[in-house]
Amino acid sequence: GERLTAPSFILLLAASVALAGCLHTARRFFFGYASTYLPADLFHAPVLTGAVLTVADSDRNGEVAMLDPAYRSRAGRLAMWQQSVEGIVDDLRKARRYLVICIDDLDRCSPKRTAAVFEAMNQFMSGQFDRTRFVMAVDPTIVAAHLKTSFKDVGSPTASVTDDDPDIGWAFLRKLVQLPVMVPAIGDPHREAAIDRLLRLGSETTDPTTVDPAKPAPLSLSTQRPFITAGATSEPEPRPEKQVEHDPMFASLLLERLEQRPACTMRELKRLLTVWVFYVRVTSMRMPLAGTAFVQRACDILVLAEIVTRWPALQKALHRSVGQSRVLTELAQVADDPTKWETRWGEFGFPTDETSSRISGDLRALLHRHRGAEVAKVAASVL
Question: By the number of CB atoms within 10 A of the CB, which of 69, 155, 206, 220 ranks highest?
């Protein structure tokens, strides 16, 4: 036969490679998975569109930080979720109903999780979900701080911030939250009713529909169903806090403390009473008292509960040991002298900025007015 020349061999080799490439491409096209040759992010997470701002840095998970989450594209798994939600919203639209999504405790999440929730909300509000409403119960200060932390490396620190927004976190909130509703403090006409409800006081036969909220009933001291201790075989043992709820001195002190804190909300009041009940039970088991002594100690515990719940950031510093004493004990001893108080406050290493000075004054007034030495003694026994 004819000999294969060099030019013929090169042409044959090139044709073979081209044919193999075509066959390989055809096999992948007809029988392969698209995810093997397309970007994985397209199928596992939102990817960037071409209309976004250029950002140099990315976080440790490889997700590029976005100045505005509304620019996330609708692709991959997210697109499938959106299709499912769109079907639900379409059904609600036909039934003339709304999809109401309630979000609570977002201020207890990490900054990254908080930002992710707002990105998801942006997907709803920027899509075809006109029958969707979000209701959030959050502390806006904490959420704004989380958003600021999440987007701190995006562009300029003042990006998207107007003169009305202190930082980018508040700018996000202002943009997204259309109807901000502030939870009101407990007003004067409702303080006693709130206490009565949280302490489970009042007559069990009272019809709530006949109660005039503008004229709350006085603190009722009827006995509720007592709890039964483990292993009890005789009469159930009453809860110790029930013994003091009948005393006007305690009721007067509680109302006075609420009047001194006009911004106190129902949540804060509930937290205060929860802490108070806990330490009343603890001290009753460890150091049983009765009569006036028991009531007075319960009042001291109420003051301690206010210190614990009102200034949680100070607790470690207030209750640390100083020789044979404690910081709170040392401060209580000079609570009647503002000059000595300021000196000791500084000696114990507390900050002296404006906020700390205000807290210092409020704490000193509380200890000076309400048996600070006895309160500190109770604190030393339970904390």
Answer: 69
Residues 198, 269: contact at Cβ < 8 Å? yes
Considering only 144-148, 149-153, 188-192, which range has the smallest mean pLDDT?
188-192
Q: What is the dihedral of CA 345, 347, 350, 351, to 10 degrees?
A: 100
Determine the pLDDT at residue 184.
Answer: 60
SS3 237: coil
327 and 302 Cβ atoms separated by less than 8 Å: no
Question: Cα angle vertex 355, ends 350, 360, to 5°?
Answer: 50
- Token pair for residue 377? 């003694």
Dihedral angle, C-alpha 89, 92, 97, 98, nearest 10 °: -20
Alpha-carbon distance values, 195 to 202, 221, 378 (Å): 10, 11, 23
Average pLDDT rounded to a whole number, residues 202-226: 43
41-46: list long-range contacts, CB under 8 Å, 24+ apart.
41/76, 42/75, 42/76, 43/76, 43/77, 44/76, 44/77, 45/76, 45/77, 45/78, 46/72, 46/73, 46/74, 46/75, 46/76, 46/78
Sign, Cα dihedral of 72, 155, 178, 270:
positive
In this structure, what are the phi and psi dihedrals at residue 133, rounded to the nearest 5 degrees?
-130, 140
How many angstroms separate the Cα of 93 from the Cα of each of 87, 186, 189, 288? 10, 39, 43, 63
Query: pTM for this structure?
Result: 0.55
Mean pLDDT of the chain: 76
d(CA 221, CA 242): 8
How far apart, in whole angstroms, are the C-alpha atoms of residue 263 and residue 55?
A: 42
Angle between helices 111-126 and 140-150 (to 10 degrees): 90
Cβ contacts of 381 within 8 Å, gap of 6 or more: 283, 286, 287
Instruction: State mean pLDDT over 96-112.
Output: 88
The H or E element containing residue 136 is strand 132-137
Radius of gyration for the chain, computed over Cα atoms and rounded to the nearest angstrom: 33
